[in-house]
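Issue 218. Parser rejects a valid record. Input:
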Amino acid sequence: MAQVLHPNVAGSLFATDGKRRPLQDALTAGTLALGVLAFITSFFPGLHLLSSWTGLVGLLVGVYGQWISVTTRERFGLVVGMGASGVGFLISMANGGLFGGLF
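Output the parser choked on:
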């Protein structure tokens, strides 16, 4: 009955090893939040400064999170957040960029 104590989660997309990792969870949540913010605000040309900076920071936080991530659950959230950050960043760069045309 050892399988009762150790369920098989190896085939699950959100497989975890059962350990707590607050730093990785915070980086995943932060990347997702920054990605959603960058993606949504990129569709408003007047908010290109907010969108470009949040997209850039979301990408950097996501890269660091990928570097220290351990489980597939963390990596999945980081990739989704980095994708949204990247799209928001690129759209806002087309609308005015990081410095609003000052440079």
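Fixed in the parser; the record now loads. The longest helix spans residues 72-95.
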